[in-house]
Amino acid sequence: MEKIKVGIVGLGRLGRKHAENIAFRIPSAELTAVCSVVKEEVEDIQKKWGIKYGYIDYDEMLKNSELDAIFISSPSGFHCEQIIKALEKGFHVFSEKPLGLYLEETERTAKIVNKYKDKQVFMLGFMRRYDSSYAYVKKKIDEGIIGKPVFIRCYGLDPANSMKSFLKFAKNSYSGGLFLDMAIHDLDLARWYLNSEAKSVWAIGGAYEYPEFKEINDAETGAALVKFENGTMGMFLAGRNCAHGYHIETEIIGTKGTLRVGTIPEKNLVTIFNDNGAIRECSEGFLERFEQAYLSETEEFINCILEKRQPDVTVEDGVNATALAYGCKKSFETGELVNF
Ligand SMILES: NC(=O)c1ccc[n+]([C@@H]2O[C@H](COP(=O)([O-])OP(=O)(O)OC[C@H]3O[C@@H](n4cnc5c(N)ncnc54)[C@H](O)[C@@H]3O)[C@@H](O)[C@H]2O)c1
What we know:
The chain is of the alpha/beta class.
């Protein structure tokens, strides 16, 4: 069987999971090279999993002509530069979200992606589109089961118990803040489900339990109200301090019905009955909740390369989602309504 040889950059919270999927769960892919600025991360994975090449310099990895594809899971501020370099060297590219942190760099990247799109696959990690529940919702909307969608309500809340590691992540790597880093998944889903781009946004937020967020000019919890070009509406709540776990919930209200995903963000189908009552445990984090989606999106990337086609999620989705998330950030920072 032909195997697509992949080199991955970024071996942190998510990169290690992607690396593991490529190395062990996709028969038509081979994890041939790993790269991180942290030498110990590279050596650890190379040693444990027997990976042929290890790099602490991304440009060095791009000189490896054995590779077919580059998988980017480095901090968000590096995505655009690393995407462009990999495409110009002739590789297929998968990049984690967001495409970039500024509209200008995402538009520049889109031009390069489109220049090479006949020969090289480009995919962006909006993995929720590959989650079985979210994909099912899209199918139901397209079948017309709720009539015309008019309103979307999204909760994207990180668990409070990962605050310590999150604050380290937020301080050490420029993530773009709550709206570009966290809410962007919901903003992309809204564009996908409502089939429209944002017209205006008003966003608010604050630091309620952890003043550290104010110090880095970010919100611990934030909310945005968006009007879309086709007249539909969206309400987005994003936060980092959710007491009961990782709460991802989405509701789409249409003219003839409602679809809802994750009303209670259950860990699994188990109910515990004890002296506290009947308990449904909650999902603990993104790696647990979206395990299937991370694998499915990577399988899709590899299949696109083998079948010489592009995935449904496009670079323009990346540009427009960044524009909307950046609008939320701007509105939060200025207190003003932002028009697109
Ligand atoms: N799709 C999702 O659900 C999801 C979830 C978490 C993170 N992400 C995205 O994944 C990316 C990585 O996030 P994370 O949480 O794994 O971050 P992280 O900080 O845990 O890991 C970053 C990794 O990149 C390496 N790195 C840093 N700068 C580098 C450089 N210049 N060249 C090469 N390697 C470099 C670090 O050493 C580390 O291995 C971010 O863009 C983030 O937005 C997506």
